[in-house]
Amino acid sequence: MNYESMAVTVSDLNLYIKDKIAKDEALNAVVVKGEISNFKAHYTGHFYFTLKDDKSLIKCVMFKTYADRINFKPKDGMKIIVFGGVSVFERDGIYQIYVKAMQEQGIGDLYAQFEKLKQNLEKEGLFDEKHKKKIPIMPKIIGVLSSQTGAVIKDIINVSTRRNPNCYIRLLPVPVQGPGAAKEIVKGIKTMNDNNLADVIILARGGGSLEDLWPFNEEIVARAIYESNIPIISAVGHETDFTISDFVADLRAPTPSAAAELANPDIFELINKINSFRERARISLKKKIELLNLKLNKLKSSRAFTNPMQNIQNNYLRIDKFIKDLEKTIKLKQKDAENRFIEQTTKLDTLSPLKTLTRGYSIVEKENKPIKSIKDLNEGDEILIRVSDGKKKAKILK
Amino acid sequence: MKQESFEVKIKKLEEIVNSLEKGETSLEDSLKIFEDGMKIAKDCNKLLQEAEKKITIILESNGDINEDNFSTEDE
């Protein structure tokens, strides 16, 4: 049998296998869990490692673009979950996983735990705004729960002293990661409260992975924060990290320094504020006094004081004027009356019978009635003859 | 509590200044609240100056607390 003509080349065979695998949907996107071994981070930024379980192993490669995105440092022995596609590397005739994403095993459950606890506490109302205590403007003593070493306590001290050179900081050192840290933190909060060691507490730690920050996601720490009578500012992890402590705390600061800013009043600003109030008070009082003074002077300089008599004289003048007016009007009235009187009397005069008498006529009256006709007179009648200058009695002869 | 009164003092000082600036209060009242304001301002400043810098560390051993001075290495 002539096998030679039947034989395929090695690369053809590998190509065929690669093609076979490429067609299999399931192999294009796989999620695999296993333990890392002989992990190598190549200088090009690519990761080469094998993933194994107790029975077998598979080679993996993670190119730089994906490798840069994971937020933890993969190490041998670490249990992880990878997501990627299976393909053949023809040159070496091996199949491997081309990894696109990687996550620590068990981390999944941490996130799940975190979410579950967050929801429960939220439902219970531990995050409610109304339970949050106000941070005092002028705390006398600032308590700090953080590790004794490292940048966190240094930052807090630096920022605090910058804002308030006379600040009083009490550090109660607590472990900020690893098992048992949660219990110590709770104990720290309790000690501070029981002995009333501070007016505000800063609970702080630097950045880290989810495991590193885990104590601050523990329920006992959340409850301790909630029950603390002293207001608590939490500054855990990087600005972008949110732990349950941040939700429960009375105030969340993005960084330890920010927490120190929030806890410490800026003394210089406060002093300026007080002095400006004092100045404004002085100025407005001075203005008020000046205003009243002006009013007083205006009044004093008014004629009523400088020449009090004048008022009275004015009144006299007015009175005189009135009198004159009165007199004038009275005189007028009188004259008017007189004229009318004269007018009437002259009229009377002209109409009056006496006028004719002066011209020699006389009026004969009988029984006080003027006689107009001779018939009214009889012999022996007694009559009265009125002439201009008087009257005489007479008798009718015939 | 001491701090509470500091916050209350600042608030009162502010109210005094506002009412003086409004200028509606009588002369006697103005003088009176002006004096109050000056006194409050003095108290506040005294309180600020009085405080003394202290950075300490609390160490708890079986229940009792002791406090020592604390300094970060480079201080």
The neighbouring-strand order within the major sheet of chain B is: 1-2
Stretches with pLDDT under 50, minimum 5 residues of chain A? none
Q: What oligomeric assembly is this protein in? A: heterodimer
Average pLDDT rating of chain B: 83
Could you give the order of the helices and strands of chain A? HHHEEEHEEHEHEHEHHEHEHHHHHEEEE
- Main beta-sheet strand count, sense and barrel state of chain B: 2 strands, antiparallel
Offer a concise description of the structure.
Chain A is of the alpha/beta class. Helices cover 46% and strands 22% of the residues of chain A.
Q: What features would you describe in this structure?
A:
In chain A, a hairpin with a 4-residue loop joins strand 2 (47-52) and strand 3 (57-62). Chain A starts with a helix and ends with a strand. The longest helix of chain A has 44 residues, at 308-351. Chain A is α/β, with parallel strands linked by helices. In chain A, helix 7 (181-194) runs parallel beside helix 9. Chain A contains 15 helices and 14 strands. With 75 residues, chain B is of the alpha+beta class. In chain B, strands 1-2 form a two-stranded antiparallel sheet. In chain B, helix 1 (2-22) packs antiparallel against helix 2. Chain B is rod-shaped. At the A-B interface, helix 6, strand 7 and helix 12 of A face helix 1, helix 2 and strand 1 of B. Strand 7 (168-173) of chain A pairs parallel with strand 1 (54-61) of chain B, so a sheet runs across the interface.
